[in-house]
Write a structure and sequence with these properties.
single chain, flat
């Protein structure tokens, strides 16, 4: 039986990517903004989040708390 181990560094990187994607999505008036590209970014990011949480490399509750703390700092 293979034991899965939570990786806090991976969680922090994923949270940072979510924050970066949120910041990019928050600027709707940019002339170079491509909605299709933003949609692909969110699809890819959500796929990665699902994979790492499903296989227990990341803890969703810990990531939510970290995201809350980072967004609360703005």
């Amino acid at each position: 039986m293979q034991v899965k181990q939570r990786c806090e560094v991976l969680e922090e990187q994923l949270v940072s990517l979510v924050v970066t994607a949120m910041e990019a999505a928050d600027v709707p008036d940019r002339s170079d903004a491509d909605p299709a590209l933003a949609h692909l970014l969110w699809q890819h990011l959500s796929s990665q989040l699902i994979y790492f949480v499903l296989f227990q490399f990341a803890s969703f509750p810990h990531m939510v708390v970290s995201l809350y703390e980072k967004v609360g700092a703005f």
